[in-house]
């Protein structure tokens, strides 16, 4: 009599899997979301570049919410304006890191957060690679001005929303694992 044992089933208790059969399960979803965010970001940026004058605000909701075209050589809040090359490398690393991490993630909320971060990084990376003053040193197009907050773009918003989603997903998973562990000990 031949006894065929069932292979160990991968644990469903973590957002990260080491089981090669499950790797990349969300890879397509993550890459599709990243590309969608970057494409939408680039389309909106092109609309803004075509229709707005640099430095001339257009009121949407009074002076609280304005469209304000700005070419940003630095990072968030205009920091590091002389380090465009460094931000290009960092954004490239985020895009590559997000894609690599996709092979290990199986949890959809964690994957979605990571995809939003990667898509935003990709959108701004495209600016750094193709916009003036030239390859690798391009300035990022910013156009959203809310109150006294910094001027930003859709890619920046995607990165920030992605970080919030990612952190909430990790904390929720951690809490669930703790409850599961405590329940197993009882």
TrEMBL record:
The active site is at 142, 156. GO terms for biological process: proteolysis. It is an enzyme of class 3 (hydrolase). InterPro entries: Peptidase_A8 (IPR001872). GO terms for molecular function: aspartic-type endopeptidase activity. It holds the Pfam family Peptidase_A8. Its main location: membrane. It catalyses: Release of signal peptides from bacterial membrane prolipoproteins. Hydrolyzes -Xaa-Yaa-Zaa-|-(S,diacylglyceryl)Cys-, in which Xaa is hydrophobic (preferably Leu), and Yaa (Ala or Ser) and Zaa (Gly or Ala) have small, neutral side chains. It is found in: Cell membrane. It is a multi-pass membrane protein. The chain crosses the membrane at residues 27-44, 85-105, 112-130, 150-171. Keywords: Aspartyl protease, Cell membrane, Hydrolase, Membrane, Protease, Transmembrane, Transmembrane helix. Pathway: Protein modification; lipoprotein biosynthesis (signal peptide cleavage). One of its GO terms (cellular component) is plasma membrane. Its EC number is 3.4.23.36. PANTHER family: LIPOPROTEIN SIGNAL PEPTIDASE. This protein specifically catalyzes the removal of signal peptides from prolipoproteins. Belongs to the peptidase A8 family. This is Lipoprotein signal peptidase. It comes from Corynebacterium yudongzhengii. The gene is lspA.
């Amino acid at each position: 009599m031949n006894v065929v044992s069932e292979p160990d089933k991968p644990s469903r208790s973590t957002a990260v899997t080491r089981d090669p059969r499950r790797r990349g399960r969300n890879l397509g979803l993550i890459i599709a979301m990243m590309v969608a965010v970057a494409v939408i970001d680039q389309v909106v940026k092109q609309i803004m570049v075509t229709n707005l004058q640099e430095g001339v605000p257009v009121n949407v909701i009074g002076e609280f919410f304005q469209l304000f075209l700005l070419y940003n050589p630095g990072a968030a809040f205009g920091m590091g304006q002389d380090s465009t090359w460094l931000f290009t490398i960092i954004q490239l690393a985020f895009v590559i890191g997000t894609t690599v991490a996709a092979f290990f993630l199986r949890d959809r909320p964690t994957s979605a957060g990571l995809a939003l971060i990667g898509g935003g990084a990709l959108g701004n990376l495209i600016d750094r690679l193709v916009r003036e003053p030239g390859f690798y040193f391009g300035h990022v197009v910013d156009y959203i001005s809310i109150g006294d907050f910094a001027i930003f773009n859709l890619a920046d918003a995607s990165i920030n929303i992605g970080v919030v989603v990612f952190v909430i997903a990790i904390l929720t998973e951690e809490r669930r694992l703790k409850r599961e562990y405590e329940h197993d000990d009882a």
